[in-house]
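Thread title: Can someone regenerate the structure for this chain?

I was given the following input by a collaborator and told the matching structure tokens would be attached. They weren't. Posting the sequence so someone can regenerate them.
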Amino acid sequence: MVADDEPQLTRLREGGEQALAETLLAERDRLHRIVELRMDPKLSGRVDPGDILQETFLEARKRLARYLDNPAVPVFVWLRGVALDTLIHVHRRHIEAQRRNAGAEVSINATAANASSTANLARSLLAGNTSPSNAAQREETHQILERALQILDEIDREVLTMRHFEQLSNDEVALILGVKKAAASRRYTRALEHIRVVLQALPGFEA
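Best answer:
Regenerated them for you:
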């Protein structure tokens, strides 16, 4: 399953912690983008994606030997999983700190995090197209596209996020979701068609 990753796996086996640090550095921009997309807005000003990636290295170092014993997924997919696990842990730690400091009921707001991810995805999709030059029209277009993303099937939206925003391959997406490659591809095509129809209906917008 990870035959294409064999050279990278060999480097990790032979180089240990140093090789892991170099691998994370090589993938830093991509992982930073993923963490930034999925970070709960409540953490703004308290934690940044760079902090998450520093902790990701520490956690990956702990898990490395176990991963190398049975590398069932490619190295990047494994690192992505460690980064998202770390993000969840940091969310919980800071939310608990807020509870103690403020004495208020605060919870991890999945809805807010999803809304942030959807807003970022909408901006990313618009950035690759010719959008209206008028600021008010751009904002309206963004809001319409965001609503269109929100009504997508959750898995379809996740596939679109991973393929377009995280720049994962169809094989990687299928592996992460535990579905067949053809199913992942169909979901991506369906989500893109939904967004294309929405965009084409907007005045002053050229897809």
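The chain has a mean pLDDT of 81.
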